[in-house]
Amino acid sequence: MKKIIVLVVLLSVFFSGFGIYNYLSQHGDFIKTSHSLVVRDLLSGGNILFISYRFQWEGFGSPEITKVDFLKGDGSIVQDDEILIETYITENDFGMLREVDMINENLKDQLLPIESYKVDKNFTLVLGIKLLDENFNNDIQTVRIFYKKLGKNLVQDISFKEGVILEE
C-alpha cells in the first residue's frame, strides 16, 4: 500500500512539474510597438534601405531568436531573387534610413546578428532591404519569428498588414 501511495505522489509531482514547464516554456508573445514603411521609389537603382521595428517581449523568461522569415500576402515565403532582406537587432529605433546615412551616423556598426539573440524585454528588428526584382508587387504581410525558450523551439507570426513597401 505504501508503494502505491509513493508511486501516486511521485507521478503527481512529475506531471505537475511537466505541466508547469510546458506552460512556462510556451507562455509569452512578441508585440510589435512601432511600424515603418518605405516608398518603393527609394528602393530603385539598387539602393539599400534599413527599416526598424520596435518589439517588446511579454512573458516569462528570455527567449532566444533563431531565425526570421517573411511571408507575402499570399502566404508564400519571400524569395531572395525578388527582394533581399538581411535581418539585424539593435537598441535604436530609427524608422527608415538609407545605407549611406546608417554608415555616416555609425548606426550600421551597432547592428547585431539576429541568430542566437537573447531577448531581454525590448529590442528593435532591423531589415536591410534591397529590391532585386523591380516588378516585386506582393508586399510582406507577416513576419515569422522562430525562437527557443527553456529548450523548446517555438514560432510566432506577427502581422505586418500595413506592409513594408508603400506604392506611390
What's a concise summary of this model?
Helix content is 18%, strand content 42%.
Write the layout of secondary structure elements.
Elements: H1 2-26, E1 29-32, E2 38-39, E3 48-58, E4 64-72, E5 83-90, E6 96-98, H2 99-104, E7 112-113, E8 117-118, E9 122-131, E10 140-149, E11 152-159, E12 165-166
Parallel strand pairs: 2-12
Antiparallel strand pairs: 1-3, 3-6, 3-9, 4-8, 4-10, 5-7, 5-9, 10-11
Q: Order of SSEs, N→C?
A: HEEEEEEHEEEEEE
Principal-axis shape: elongated
Structural class: alpha+beta
Strands, total number: 12
Examine the coordinates and then state which fold CATH places here, giving the name of the CATH topology: Immunoglobulin-like
Overall average pLDDT: 84
Tally the structural domains.
1
Indicate the radius of gyration in whole angstroms: 21 Å
Poorly predicted runs: none
DSSP summary: helix tally: 2
Labels describing this entry:
single chain, 168 residues, alpha+beta, Immunoglobulin-like, six-stranded antiparallel β-sheet, four-stranded antiparallel β-sheet, 2 helices, 18% helix
Structure commentary:
With 168 residues, the chain is α+β, with helices and mostly antiparallel strands. The chain has a single domain, classed as Immunoglobulin-like, CATH 2.60.40. Helix content is 18%, strand content 42%. The protein is built from 2 helices and 12 strands, in the order H-E-E-E-E-E-E-H-E-E-E-E-E-E. The strands form 3 sheets. Strands 1, 3, 5, 6, 7 and 9 form a 6-stranded antiparallel beta sheet that branches. Strands 8-4-10-11 form a 4-stranded antiparallel beta sheet, with no helix packed on it.
